[in-house]
Design a protein that fits this description.
Rossmann fold, Protein-Tyrosine Phosphatase, Chain A, cell division, nine-stranded mixed sheet, cytoplasm, UDP-N-acetylmuramoyl-L-alanine:D-glutamate ligase, six-stranded mixed sheet, alpha/beta, nucleotide-binding, single chain, Mur_ligase_C_dom_sf, 17 helices, ATP-binding
């Protein structure tokens, strides 16, 4: 008798897991409460994998020996509660796929910066001719890669939702970029639960493994004091000199790992802003640990062009810069974006608020923002927070309208910044869709 695996959710991680599970001899059912995209249906059909959409066949699902839950499905979904009540293990794609590869795993999590750090590290390892796969919360499904390719190393971007389903997963090198309140709606509005989820990346590490983290982040350092991990600690900081790990002094980055020192001028980093200096430090610390040539590390950090939808320069029209930061789905990410603006800014903000506290943004809005365009189904909270701070605050319901208004309001030398600080699901499919709509609207001006 084949073991039965049920995959909840027919998206990228679900379909990838189904392919790997089938290859490993499981009888597989993919079940999606909503609609499965045509492209994914075709893949499932080509692989002869049974799928259903528009609801769950509970009786069939409860016959499973293991369930992989896609990261977007909350634990409080009725079907998940039912599965757990029957004592069936519920795991994540990352947990499942890691069981079937001998590759070295590098896992990257954090509230912000994880996509940039993952992409930068992946690029760096590719420049060093490593046989590397970049997967997880970014690009291709990790499980599908494990099923179809043999890699020496995987660089995995991992969200807290993916870490929730971790049992034995233990990356050889883990990075926590930072931890700020985000997705609190999924963690009963308890910040502690969200922090604990992030630290699951290091929970199974051994003394032979490494944890790289931001030593300037009090949330991380406090947690580590109270909940020590077994792995070797490699902190990075832009404010304090460190014996091991990475630090910044007189605009020079110093990295010390296992008696191996790397140095580089921060000026030469392709990605600007303090947060990107930290992302570069985290990626370079891994590269230094892996003994990659110092010249390759420097060239990669000088040449990396950044990530789509993350402070992406779109166009300059009438000497106004249009910047797409659609990936800023929380307040902290928008804080970085506003902090990096060096001229008056028309700020497009809004979407589904995940329990945001906007007070951190007050000083930056007062200093840098000349007009606010709210782009969401419900903008009440934004209006009450920022209504008295700027002369112009306007509500819109579509990206085209928002960009047209921004075009009218902006003057020579200004920036127009899309940095929503919110999730996108009220008006858009996801943050990529939102970013692409912004870019198209700008190009159509």
């Amino acid at each position: 008798m084949k073991k039965k695996m049920v995959v909840l959710g027919g998206g990228e991680s679900g379909v990838g897991t189904a392919i790997l599970a089938q290859q490993k001899g499981y009888e597989v059912l993919v079940s999606d409460f909503g609609k499965i995209k045509e492209t994914y249906k075709k893949v499932l059909t080509d692989f002869d994998i049974i799928w259903e959409e528009g609801g769950h066949s509970e009786a069939s699902i409860l016959e499973a020996e293991v369930v992989m839950k896609s990261p977007g499905i909350p634990d409080k979904a009725p079907i998940v509660k039912s599965i757990m009540a029957h004592g069936i293990p519920v795991i994540s794609e990352i947990e499942f796929a890691a069981r079937y590869t001998d590759a070295m795993l590098i896992g990257i999590t954090g509230s912000n910066g994880k996509t940039t750090t993952t992409s930068l590290l992946g690029y760096l390892l590719q420049q060093a001719n490593s046989n590397v796969g970049i997967a997880g919360n970014i690009g291709d499904s990790f499980a599908k890669m494990v099923a179809q390719q043999t890699m020496d190393t995987y660089v995995l971007e991992i969200s807290s939702f993916q870490l929730d389903g971790v049992v034995d997963f233990a990356p050889h090198i883990a990075i926590i970029t930072n931890i700020t309140p985000d997705h609190l709606d999924r963690y009963e509005y308890e910040f502690e639960k969200y922090i604990a989820a992030k630290f699951k990346i290091a929970i199974n590490q051994t003394p032979d493994d490494y944890l790289i983290y931001d030593a300037d982040d009090p949330v991380i350092t406090d947690w580590l004091e109270k909940h020590p991990v077994k792995s070797k600690l490699l902190p990075f900081s832009i404010h304090q000199k460190l014996e091991v790990g990475a630090y910044l002094e007189d605009n020079i980055i110093y990295i010390n790992t296992d008696n191996n020192q790397f140095t580089m001028t921060a000026q030469k980093l392709a990605l600007k802003g303090q947060h990107n200096t930290k992302n570069a430090m985290a990626a370079a610390t891994v590269a230094n640990l892996l003994n990659i040539r110092k010249a390759t590390i420097r060239e990669s950090l000088e040449g990396f062009q950044g990530v789509e939808h993350r402070l992406e320069q779109v166009l300059k029209i009438g000497n106004v810069k249009y910047i797409n930061d659609s990936k800023a789905t929380n307040v902290n990410a928008t804080f970085y974006a506003l902090d990096s603006m060096n001229s008056p800014t028309v700020w497009i903000v809004g979407g589904i608020d995940k329990g945001n506290d906007y007070r951190d943004l007050y000083p930056l809005v007062n200093e840098k923002v000349k007009a606010i365009i709210c782009l969401g189904v419900d903008n009440t909270k934004l209006m009450s927070h920022f209504g008295n701070m700027v002369d112009i605050i306007i509500e819109t319901q579509s990206m085209t309208e928002a960009v047209k208004i921004a075009y009218k309001v902006a003057e020579k030398g200004d920036n127009v910044l899309l940095s929503p600080a919110c999730a996108s699901f009220d008006l858009f499919e996801n943050y990529e869709d939102r970013g692409r709509q912004f870019k198209n609207a700008v190009r159509n001006l």
